[in-house]
Write a structure and sequence with these properties.
mainly alpha, Growth Hormone, Chain: A, 2 domains, 16 helices, globular
Length: about 425
């Protein structure tokens, strides 16, 4: 498959990730400062919506195995865009119920589109190598979307609230352009059938041997999820993904606290985040090439070792150590590229082998979202118990432990598990 076609598939990942960052980063501050929602109520709404969002992913995954992937993506984009615009324009006096309703609508559209889009990529590719390239393109554009969403509010307006509100109007045209490009190249290439629709060359990028619907399409969603989890290779991959994901989610949750209170450089948090994500995007092509030569498991393992080496010195940093921390952000960002591209590509192969790609990614996304929720739900109370208070000098040792040392232990465990199970997780062409 040509490089242009791979990029055409991946482009839709940009607006999807573009919307995800404001929801996780900008939304709490916006509703707390602009809408005046009590922090306890705000936290309860955000956590409840996130858990609900994660809980519907297995059902959406099973649904993606029953309907056309492109159709499901197209339908899901409508509530996704509408919910996102509504989310950042709450009416006066009803901010809390508006937040809950618009967040539920946004999450429903986002999750349905994401699950079907990921499974769609597995349909398009006809080999592990091609699926890796497609996954890398999707995640690379996603990282660009994250960086764009991070910098645009301050560009659009000097006032934070106005900038975030204007950000919401950027999504619809961005989503429209990306969807037109992706659908123009692959709009008829949904679940594989006896045809090769969607390819200029009938031999290019699609298989024609997998019937649609799959034998598992008639299963209820819980049976589909159970069948996926019954596959030993998927269970092992999922466990590695969980441990590795928790190792990444912890520092992500505590990043702003670490920069502000340990490094004493709060103003540098934006550029440091941008450095991290740009490095991740830049490294994707490198990891794809390494995976093509050494295999995806070996490449992912190498990235874990790089992340461990990069983060090993984070616990030694203190006030003013900006440049050493920037080097850590750069190195760990380079490792991020492998985390984004390789495990999802392996999951796609396992799903294709089982003819339940949608169900695989439903469970996959459920676990990924649960990781983020658990990282915040466990780390923040732990810090409070250990005496850390944001903005003060108390309990900084606890912050260093949770930000730098605990993720190292989790990453080392993930690397050990991956290497132990490498023979069952590496799928040859």
């Amino acid at each position: 498959m040509s490089h242009a076609r791979v990029l055409a598939y991946g482009l839709l990942g940009l607006p999807l990730a573009f919307a995800a960052l404001p929801i996780y980063v900008h939304l709490p501050r916006y509703y707390a400062e602009t809408a005046g929602i009590d922090l306890a109520l705000l936290g309860a709404i955000l956590l409840g919506a996130r858990l609900l969002d994660a809980g519907i992913d297995p059902w959406l995954g099973a649904l993606a195995d029953r309907v056309s992937r492109p159709t499901m993506v197209a339908v899901a984009l409508l509530p996704f865009a509408a919910g996102f615009v509504a989310l950042l324009h709450p009416p006066a006096g009803a901010a809390a119920p508006w937040l809950l309703g618009s967040l539920a609508l946004t999450y429903l559209g986002y999750s349905a589109a994401t699950v079907a889009y990921q499974a769609w990529g597995a349909d398009i590719g006809d080999s592990p190598g091609l699926r890796t390239r497609l996954t890398a393109a999707r995640e690379g554009f996603g990282l660009l979307g994250v960086v764009l969403a991070a910098v645009l509010p301050s560009v659009l307006a000097a006032d934070f609230a106005v900038g975030v509100e204007r950000l919401s109007w950027v999504l619809p045209p961005l989503l429209l352009v990306a969807a037109l490009v992706t659908f123009s190249r692959f709009g008829s290439a949904g679940r594989r059938s006896a045809t090769t629709a969607g390819c200029a060359d009938p031999r290019e990028g699609l298989q024609d041997s997998v019937p649609w619907p799959s034998p598992a399409a008639s299963q209820p969603w819980w049976q589909a999820a159970r069948a996926v989890l019954a596959e030993p290779a998927f269970r092992r991959l999922l466990l590695v993904f969980v441990v590795n994901g928790f190792a990444s989610a912890l520092p992500a949750t505590l990043f702003l606290f670490f920069v502000a209170d340990v490094l004493q450089r709060e103003s540098a948090s934006g550029p440091l985040l941008a450095l991290y994500f740009v490095a991740g995007a830049a490294s994707l092509t490198l990891w794809v090439r390494i995976a093509a030569i050494r295999g995806r498991v070996a490449a992912w393992f190498l990235a874990m070792l790089l992340s461990i080496a990069a983060f090993a010195g984070a616990g030694l940093l203190g006030s003013g150590d900006l440049w050493p921390f920037a080097a850590i952000c750069l190195a760990s960002g380079l490792a991020l590229g492998a985390d984004l591209a390789l495990p999802a590509a392996i999951a796609a192969d396992i799903g294709e082998r089982m003819r339940q790609t949608g169900a695989c990614f439903g469970v996959w996304n459920f676990v990924a979202k649960l990781n983020l929720a658990l990282a915040a739900g466990l780390a923040l109370p732990l810090l409070a118990v250990l005496g850390y208070s944001p903005g003060s000098a108390g309990g900084l040792h606890a912050l260093v432990f949770a930000y730098a040392l605990l993720p190292l232990a989790c990453k080392a465990l993930a690397a050990w598990l991956l290497w132990r199970w490498r023979s069952t997780l590496e799928i040859e062409k």
